[in-house]
UniProtKB/TrEMBL annotation:
Organism from which the protein derives: Gordonia caeni
Protein name according to UniProt: Nuclear transport factor 2 family protein
Limits of the SnoaL-like domain: 10-93
SUPFAM superfamilies: NTF2-like (SSF54427)
Length: 254
């Protein structure tokens, strides 16, 4: 599975569109970033490539890989060279949902679009030409509807909820289940690895000794966070309904 996933950055580095597309199942989804409108199927994935990959040089700096069931989680930083004077560094969690023939059925990229745009704006005058090219590419390849769909990536849970998610994970890891319970909806979906859990208390028991480490990212309605127990790494994904957590999935090697 890791070898199959590694095919994506290799094809991106070579700017080999056909090889990149061949990594995906016919009905695969790319949601990049999470919160924006997803791209589905070969034709839309082709337009995604032309818009966001072809004009840039993208390098994947991987910190940790996690294989959990049919999912590969990649904790990394994306280095995006948009011109010889504009290079961005984007912290990300990537989730690859795999199928039996080792093709990608879903790629879900968790990174913060507002932070990336702010970083781009901070590059000053050289960023103006890049922004203009990006706008032309968006409108040309995605049309107005796709451009609006991409802009949905600016919406999300906000910085306050992102901080609360990190605090919740720290509280659960410290064993304080009672104070954590009020953060969840009445019937949350909870998973640790491939195990389904019945309550926040059970989740807390499985998270005992784990603590946030490294990046926390808010993309769409999901906050993702790198965790460690001092020996291994995990990625937790908390989905919000309003201000409360409706699901938690903790991806660990399993």
């Amino acid at each position: 599975m890791l070898a199959a996933v590694d095919g994506s950055p290799a094809a991106v580095a070579d700017h080999d569109k056909e090889r990149w597309l061949s990594l995906f199942a016919p009905t695969a989804v790319v949601n990049d970033p999470v919160g924006s409108a997803p791209h589905r199927g070969g034709a839309q994935l082709s337009r995604f490539y032309d818009t966001f990959i072809a004009p840039n040089t993208v390098r994947f700096h991987v910190d940790h890989d996690i294989v959990c069931g049919d999912d590969v989680l990649r904790d990394l930083t994306l280095e995006i060279e948009m011109s010889d004077r504009v290079t961005l560094s984007v912290p990300a969690h990537l989730r690859y949902a795999m199928i039996a023939d080792m093709r990608i059925d879903g790629l879900y990229a968790h990174w913060e679009l507002p932070a990336m745009v702010a970083q781009l704006a901070g590059k000053g005058l050289p960023a103006a030409a890049v922004s203009g090219r990006l706008t032309v590419g968006l409108l040309g390849n995605q049309r107005l509807g796709g451009t609006v769909g991409f802009a949905r990536g600016f919406l999300g849970v906000g910085g306050r909820t992102k901080r609360r998610a990190g605090e919740l994970l720290a509280v659960l890891g410290a064993g304080d289940h009672a104070n954590a319970a009020g953060e969840f909806t009445d019937d949350p979906t909870l998973r640790f690895g491939e195990e389904t859990l019945n309550s926040p208390a059970e989740l807390g028991a499985r998270l005992a000794g784990w603590r946030p480490a490294g990046k926390t990212i808010a993309a769409g309605r999901i906050v993702s966070a790198t965790l460690t127990d001092g020996q291994s790494y995990a990625v937790a994904m908390l989905e919000y309904s309003g201000r409360r957590v409706s699901s938690v999935s903790v991806f660990v090697d399993c």
